Amino acid sequence: MKIDRSFIKKHLPALKECVNNASREIINIYNSNNFGEISKSDGSPLTIADQKANEVIICNLKDISPDIPIVSEETFDKPSLNEIKSLYWLVDPLDGTREFINKTDEFTVNIALIYDKKAVFGIVASPVKEKIWHGSIFDDNQREESSPDCLRLVISKSHKSINDEAFLEFLDDRNVKYQIIEKGSSLKLCGLADNDADIYPRFGPTSEWDIAAAHAVLASYGGSVISIPDETELSYSKKSSILNSYFIAFRNNEIKSEYLPLLRDFFKKLV
Prior knowledge:
It is a single chain. With 271 residues, the protein is of the alpha+beta class. Helices cover 36% and strands 23% of the residues. It has 7 helices and 12 strands. It has helices at residues 5-32, 48-64, 97-101, 162-173, 187-193, 208-220, 253-267; strands at residues 38-39, 45-46, 70-72, 87-95, 108-115, 118-126, 131-136, 151-156, 178-183, 199-202, 224-227, 247-250. The strands form 4 sheets. It has a 5-stranded mixed β-sheet. The longest helix is centred in the N-terminal third of the chain and has 28 residues, at 5-32. The protein is globular and about 50 Å long.
């Protein structure tokens, strides 16, 4: 199967309908206030909305591309890591479940197409905002590159860590001017794609399905997600773990070129 611009163009309308269908299921439950919340084995929350959205997405993706396997957060088990193919859909049916439960509106539906360890396409939907982002490595949406006088730093609304506090102290010590923007779910990476923020440092645990779709969107606008400490573009399909390394995302290459060398000393201190 050839994965190229024409493949994406052919299936994009159906993929938009897929995330819209999932969004409708999520909003129905969101408005009902009957979430049916339970805790998964790793302590993270699970709701009826996660399950309903997952059912819709799996069904739709099987109709769109019966030959492409699907890896979803809600049906994944660790032994299946060794069965992951070079081409597959990677799904987080409801990213930001805590934001959903806390009624902050900042949760998303995420579908990525992974090929040869890269997120080659991604589509993200905000059920509350009724907005869809999509992008692929075949797009050329790059904006004029610039580096800001005051760095717009987007961080997690629900998952702050001691590393985040240390990072801000590091910037203060080097007289870097910054503005903090808090967002939930994959809206952080989408904020970079929208030019609403400049960098997104993540020095805590995330899984591949949390960021793959928005990673592809950001890449289509000239941004990047850099793995720490090796400073290469974040990759997928790891056989050892579904967890990502720490990473830092940049809105464009100029910002990456300016700030990545400065941040290397901080990377050495991460815990």
